[in-house]
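User: structure tokens for this one?
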Amino acid sequence: MKRLCEWIWFNGRLVPFEEARVHVLAHVIHYGSSVFEGIRAYSTPKGTVVFRLREHLRRLYHSARIYRMSIPYAMEALHEAVLETIRANGFASCYIRPVVFRGYGTMGVNPLNCPVEVSIAAWEWESYLGQEALTEGVDVQVSSWHRMSANSIPYMAKAGGNYLNAQLIKMEALMHGYSEGIALDQEGFLAEGSGENLFLVCDGRLITPSLEAPILPGITRDAVIRLARDMGIEVIETRLPRAALYVADELFFTGTAAEITPIRSVDRIPVGTGTRGPITARLQEAFFRIVHEGEDPYGWLTPV
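Assistant:
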């Protein structure tokens, strides 16, 4: 097995990669009882920095609260543990994966008698949809799989079990020759990609599904909204029909892994001119100036 890192923070201490193990009867394996985060650290001229670490950890604790998982560490302790994991592995830039899960206790759906365990791993990871996708864009399809309803699975939580739905969306897209899929909600309105939030540009305005839709409240999504408004771009959060994809001037995904990735076609229909649009390019430039150059007017960067 290829090592992603040398050291993993596991239940309060750094352990070698091979020792970060979970029992086969752990609750998480049988019932998907985990919550997690995806965080990026970037190399800048000012040193390695973590993008919006506080916000990511806050969402991790919110996700755990929804599932009645009491994390056995204070948020400040996990904050330092993330930095410790990056330092121990010597990464200048990396992707960080904290995960909180139910371990081995008792079998059965009831998770309350199973211990809550925590691990933090990190690895070097380029752009999720490919480096060239940041400029050339990606081809996507509207998925036949829908996102869950609000009162079936809480989509505000970044929970492991939610990503069974995401896997179906992703596999279907790849099997049909696309890079990614876009899911609709139960009523046919736009939701998000398998692991990304979605933005449209129409007549100079930036439009995105509101948090009433079954989407994760993305931290990069929030950053892009802030950047756009500070540029004087009107931002609208609303319900959007599927057809809006085919008449948008620009489309792009956002996410910790995907960063800001343009979409060049949907269901083989080109988006705009089929190339990265000017507003997408402006937002990318502003975002990458922060994370690559270390210019941080918003206080989003934590030094490692």
